[in-house]
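User: What would this chain look like folded?
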Amino acid sequence: MAMLVLGLGYAGSAIAAAAEAAGLAVSGTRRAPRAGEPAPPGVAVIRFDAAGPAIAAATHLVVTAAPEDGAGDPVLAAHAPALAAATRLRWVGYLSTTGVYGDRQGGWVAETTPPAPAQERSLRRLAAERAWWAALAGRGVALDIFRTAGIYGPGRSALDELRAGRARRVDKPDHLFSRIHRDDIAAAVLAAATGEGWRTDAPACCTGR
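Assistant: Here's the prediction, encoded as structure tokens.
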């Protein structure tokens, strides 16, 4: 199993670290090297614009890169030929957002709830999801869509904001929201990747308002 994480950001780095710890051969992309921000141990870092050969050789892809305004999904836009040449590819995991469900007025969202995005960035996410379905159609490659809620974890919590002096009081009666821990995302993605049989477009967590 050769996993490539396209986007070693906050969640992507956690996914890569969990996969490497589970014994997978893992590499990941970044737009450019970042001083003082090393990759997870054992994870090879590749520049995003040079990731074509790694995509073509991968058995598993994790896509965390957000769609760009007016340009669509950045991976499909930059590396469609490499994806088409990825004959070993068995599974793709795409990190989307619960924002594609829109404002549900505090109601619950289930696997059968149809998307109804209103914000422009959520519309772009849904378009990217559909683009990945189209790109993999007929290839026998499993695709899991993870519609994650707001991400928190080490260095990103209400207590961290308070310590840094950036805490804000949010006073919105009846306003509901949902959060998911970064490490829970990593665990869910790794379980789906290694199971290779779980096909879903359901969210990784519940949503609110």
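Residues 120-136 form the longest helix (17 residues). If you want, I can go into more detail on any region.
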